[in-house]
Specification:
Number of strands: 14
Strand content: over 45%
Strand order of the largest sheet: 5-4-3-2-10-11
Number of helices: 0
Distance between the termini: 9 Å
Number of domains: 1
Helix content: under 10%
Shape: elongated
Structural class: mainly beta
Largest sheet: 6 strands, antiparallel
Length: about 160
């Protein structure tokens, strides 16, 4: 079955009138899913926009290709806010995780997502990156690693919603 998940996130940002760091969402994310290929629940998958498949963390032995991709990656930036909407399509089939003695689910029982952001410090002329996760205690604030200028604050957890 083809499943579709929508992920949305919003960050507040300082006014661009001060020091502009060109904060931007990177076109990659990590998402927890129940993988019918390795038949394990709660697997971390890595996705990049433009790639035709995701990569499942598998087990301790090796990662493996997964049947999923980023179908949409939409960014909205306003004066003091940046928002992201990602749609992920992936294939899923019923299975039972024999190690955990648990059935797989179309959207894993405790879903989480990690979203990546990048920036460029105008003072140091260096780039930096950070991430926000749905399973962090809020609020979370990020500052530039070079000049300590505030970059963004996450007051609400990114949402993960099964569409189909």
């Amino acid at each position: 079955m083809l499943r579709t998940v929508e992920i949305t996130a919003e960050l507040t940002t300082p006014s661009r009138d001060k020091v502009f760091h060109n904060l931007h969402w990177q076109k990659k994310l990590d998402l927890s899913v129940d993988c019918f290929i390795c038949e394990r629940t709660g697997r971390t998958t890595h996705l990049r926009q433009g790639e035709e498949r995701m990569v499942c963390s598998g087990d301790a032995r090796a990662e493996h290709p997964g049947a999923g991709r980023v179908a949409a990656f939409d960014v909205t930036s306003e004066r003091e806010r940046t928002s992201l909407r990602v749609v992920v399509d992936y294939w899923w089939a019923p299975f039972r995780d024999v190690e955990r003695d648990a059935p797989g689910a179309a959207l894993t029982h405790a879903p989480w997502v990690r979203l990546y952001l990048g920036y460029r410090c105008p003072e140091a002329r260096e780039t930096g990156a950070f991430s926000v996760q749905s399973n962090m205690v809020r609020p979370v604030s990020e500052t530039c690693a070079q000049c300590a200028h505030p970059l963004a604050t996450s007051t609400r957890s990114p949402s993960i919603r099964l569409l189909s």
